Amino acid sequence: MDRSFLLDQLILIGARQLLRQQSIIEELESRGEDSRYARSFLCTLQEIQAMRLADRDRSRGGSSSSSPTSVDRAGRHLRLASDSD
Length: 85
Known about the structure:
single chain; mainly alpha; two-stranded antiparallel ribbon; elongated
């Protein structure tokens, strides 16, 4: 398997993890339970996903992501607006 395929698979897994964690948070909150730790873990998953996406972009010869980025609920890599935009 090539590196690009493996990175894409990791990104898909990460997207599923993000959606599942968001579902867990929604369930906790619907029951009136504390979701702080679940939210903290979601942030960690988002950071990991952003690193995976940046790694994929670099491996494909794209930008090394010098612009700030974030990850949406489905794990998609989003470029944040900067002052130069």
